[in-house]
Amino acid sequence: MSKNIQKLTLHPDRLFSSDDKVIEVARKLYEKVKDLPIISPHGHTDPSWFADNNNFENAADLLIRPDHYVFRMLYSQGISLESLGIPQHGEKGDLAGSRQVDPQSIWQIFADNYHLFAGTPSGYWLDATFSNVFGFTDKLCNENATEYYNEINKQLATPEFKPHALMDRFNIELIATTEGALDQLPHHRKLKDSAFAKRVITSFRPDDVVDASREDFKQNVAKLAELTGEDTSDWHGYLAAIRQRRAYFKEHGRATATDHGHPTALTANLNEQQCQALLDKALAGTATETEQELFRGQLLTELAGMSIEDGLVMQIHPGAHRNHNQGLFERYGRDKGADIPSQTEYVNALKPLLAKYGNDPRLDIILFTLDETTYSRELAPLAGHYPSLKLGPAWWFHDSPAGMLRFRQQTTETAGFYNTVGFNDDTRAFLSIPARHDVARRVDCRYLAELVTNHQITLGEAHTLAYELTYGLVKQAYKL
Amino acid sequence: MSKNIQKLTLHPDRLFSSDDKVIEVARKLYEKVKDLPIISPHGHTDPSWFADNNNFENAADLLIRPDHYVFRMLYSQGISLESLGIPQHGEKGDLAGSRQVDPQSIWQIFADNYHLFAGTPSGYWLDATFSNVFGFTDKLCNENATEYYNEINKQLATPEFKPHALMDRFNIELIATTEGALDQLPHHRKLKDSAFAKRVITSFRPDDVVDASREDFKQNVAKLAELTGEDTSDWHGYLAAIRQRRAYFKEHGRATATDHGHPTALTANLNEQQCQALLDKALAGTATETEQELFRGQLLTELAGMSIEDGLVMQIHPGAHRNHNQGLFERYGRDKGADIPSQTEYVNALKPLLAKYGNDPRLDIILFTLDETTYSRELAPLAGHYPSLKLGPAWWFHDSPAGMLRFRQQTTETAGFYNTVGFNDDTRAFLSIPARHDVARRVDCRYLAELVTNHQITLGEAHTLAYELTYGLVKQAYKL
Amino acid sequence: MSKNIQKLTLHPDRLFSSDDKVIEVARKLYEKVKDLPIISPHGHTDPSWFADNNNFENAADLLIRPDHYVFRMLYSQGISLESLGIPQHGEKGDLAGSRQVDPQSIWQIFADNYHLFAGTPSGYWLDATFSNVFGFTDKLCNENATEYYNEINKQLATPEFKPHALMDRFNIELIATTEGALDQLPHHRKLKDSAFAKRVITSFRPDDVVDASREDFKQNVAKLAELTGEDTSDWHGYLAAIRQRRAYFKEHGRATATDHGHPTALTANLNEQQCQALLDKALAGTATETEQELFRGQLLTELAGMSIEDGLVMQIHPGAHRNHNQGLFERYGRDKGADIPSQTEYVNALKPLLAKYGNDPRLDIILFTLDETTYSRELAPLAGHYPSLKLGPAWWFHDSPAGMLRFRQQTTETAGFYNTVGFNDDTRAFLSIPARHDVARRVDCRYLAELVTNHQITLGEAHTLAYELTYGLVKQAYKL
Hints:
Three copies of one chain form a homotrimer. By secondary structure, the first copy, chain A, is of the alpha/beta class. The first copy, chain A, has helices spanning about 20-35, 45-50, 60-65, 70-75, 105-110, 120-135, 145-155, 165-170, 185-190, 205-210, 215-230, 235-255, 270-285, 290-310, 325-330, 350-355, 375-385, 400-415, 435-455, 460-475; strands at about 40, 170-175, 180, 200, 205, 255-260, 315, 320, 340, 365, 390.
């Protein structure tokens, strides 16, 4: 049986292409950036990890159940979410509420199907984590699943695997979490006077109070009123309340950025009367889909104005069709791997915002996309012109070796390198963070090496650029 | 003169890239899959060939006149369809009806313009066919056209070139043809008790009875009533009639799949009353384009429901703007090389069907596209989530070396390999089938070899995957 | 300090990829085409340069201020247009009207920020121009800015840098400029009896008299009436006036082509009454945006009809959202680097025109795009079918090494090489013309070399094709 077990090795030249000339240059570039500290300016780790510094529980809870990249693939091949212990709606929302399923049996299913991840970034991140973080030397498979499970759990229980220790081991200089507008930031406040205060910051994500299509919108806006003492049924009061929360996030969470996960990139520039009317309808629950969209669009413009005032960098992540699988959504709720990208338009959508604020030197907007067709057609030309626009890295489904390469190949010639902002891991999978940043560094070095060997840039320029793409640009773009 | 004649040689490493490290791995992978039997689960060969086992007639009739890939290119360069013997509307529809043009003069025009095919898949398939099937060692050109023509005709007349002999020579384990819903499958029935019964099957393509935009829709539905004894003017009777035909295709044509060539991927989920109203209008010829579209969309959902009942795998081929060239259509009719892809949307379009049936473990849908932008944005995310969805291979204009490579590069990272279904040749050009499958095997081996040399998968994984992509996945996906 | 100065060298194998086998073949192909004369059939150089043959003024005026590729990048990084001497609206439109800013200070800003162009085609063209045209051996940087500036100005003042001398030095066999429909072509007429008459021709660009969304449309049409003596308020008179201007451009400007820069590729085929009604509204200033669009679309069809009559080749350049930056447009006017591509549809848009004229052997239309998604989906299939359609080269933002490669990779398999038309530089940056054509030749040779080393075409075919892509096809397509 054990002849089926394959060795797990991470080749030192992995992702550098197969071309020896490219590899040689990529190696030189990578050598200089591989040990630079990790800056993670956008992601979804749980701030309580850093505030409480408790050990993680077990392999399945840490690596499978919260990772929709992983369970979406298993689900696509006919493995039920029940068997993976994914809690259903009505069950307690947190994972701990759904302990009917033995974590070890979840792990076994995962191991039995590990071949599904061949050639995917998840497979790559997992292998790198197993090798680099836990020291495994055999690839995970059905035969060694138990061994893997026990070994991971054993290590997770040690002091070396507490979050603070891992922050140091992973060389994470800074990590930003993301919290909703109503969050009181207890974990970030707890960190306030600790050595980790500077290293763990939040980002302000107000989708819950600006997206009137949410079931809980009205409640959220009511809560916003409570928290701020503003009359949020009044357009001015509503904006003032949001302003207060931004200030709160800056003060108590050390936020330097906001984040906006809208279905589209639409922006609007309406007059006060129109805004009040939309707010009224949104709160009354009578807004049509188009009006909800317009309301979100107006808010993007308002939030850009606030960014000019308070200096928070604005991240726009449009284009996900959330919860596409209706049956699954009804049974399991949000974030169950059923978010599907859809075609996204930027040129007309952003025009109202840009017409109002696009030339203001105080404004910094970082644009993301799930629609790769916009790289060369819309995003690079926009970022290559407007001083307020920069391009975020390849996002989500495109946060992958080939995806990152396409990002550079399709944006660099028009936007250059200096209108981009380095890498985001955008993850809740804490243990995979080093692997993810390592992929980005390797792919960038490979891309630069190709330009060098094709005689498009010099090796000297490539060294400077490798540093900027890894460390320089992200600190500058996120004002860190 | 003869110094212009170039040698025709097929390099053993063709399509493996120029990189020696990649070539070396690709060779190893290819060595193990090159002789696996051909499974051709979707195509348009003529079932009478297999039922009657007669010799083919001549080179022009076999290789040029029925191949719209070939004559579209000639036409684009100003060569008239008349001169290629393409029958006009009103002439007998079958090729034999239009013998005004000497086949040899058609062949000469083709040979004179053979340089137009440099770098195209047609050129590649033709060269491979000339070399491997007929044994030519010089490239076709104006000077050797006659020699070629006579030699091909001579060989075509031999017993070794009868369809059954070629099935064996080509190592075709199974080939599926495609018939309309009203077809009585005489050729498949004739094969019933022969050794070829298992090797030649049909697919059920009901476009003629579900597409109300067709001139012959009303007649077709009337014929459907006749064949089944159902009242096809009643929504339930209409569906029951289609159900009967599916059963007929399973029984008499050994069908395991259906096929749907719709202009878009739209699906719908209407109530009975709405369905009856649409059917009424469709039959009365009063349905608007939007209603015709909605009707087709509703049918896709109904047909998915039937697939759950009877187990037929559903293939959806959307996105061709048929008969774009109006003048040509009026003079020559359908399928004259003037079908043009158009932008295709899947995420919203498929939602009604998926909301109803997408999580049913009994449903298998294979999605195709002519719009490559959907690979990474829509199709890979959908197939990487829904258990009912798989991705068909690069289709039609994209069934080409670079097209296939883009398919893998843009789908693998999100959907993996196991949500794909191997290769389809989708052709009526019988002699080119080995060449087409060979291209797919070579390109897949090359892609896998790149992953191996880039250290993203191991050689062992690559061997397993090469087998799956060539032989394993297609048998599983099409239930063969 | 001077240790920061990098050597400027142009590697002989640049842009040939890093693969030695590819490089070897690319070198052989390039060797045979590198010295072929330059044919520049579409561009925006100033015809007065060739008519008057005066020396250019200074480095900033020649290389920075008129080049929106250059100043858009600087602007995107927060450098104000004022500091670059870009004239504001109301100031005299020509560059000379805005001499508040010392050209040398503009040059210094440019040099200080030259690193922004790393990896961009502008960077590549500039380096090649500095090296090949001016003989610099160090890369431009903040330290040698003055030296560069003075040296360039010194050389610009010599007889060897007069336009005619440069035409010879650059081996430009023919260059086409582009003039609006109302232009009296004084410069082209001046050249009439000179040796340069055959080498400098115009193209007819009637956007100013067919685009009713322009502020000056009504005036332009009035001027059209004056020039031609036609009643341009009458549909027939209006068309007759345009016909006259085309004849004028043929006679006095030796035009062989027209050019159409429309927001979309829409065409229409309306009846006379509808046309007259649209013209009435357009002239009255009451046409809606949709009507203006329809009017432009109708004109494309009319202009195609005129091309059939007079033989002028039609170029369609759709898809730019002009003057996207509203604030900039208000202050600085048109063409300030704020044109952004937008999604462009061809299949439905061109159908009316193609239905009317698409099969006419006398019609030649060259299609361009800023939307790369249309290469494989729409444009290659259209050009691979319609005898009247050919594909223009990678345009504007995509006129770059990676952009050109994508063009070939995504069009060749469906359209072949013979439905393309060679290279256009499309530039007003006269000094960069050799560098731009050299990039195209290198990238084409590289692409062909990849096909050769991948055993898809023979070396003999590649040599033929390299010649065609460089010199043969452009002369044929533009009837030169």
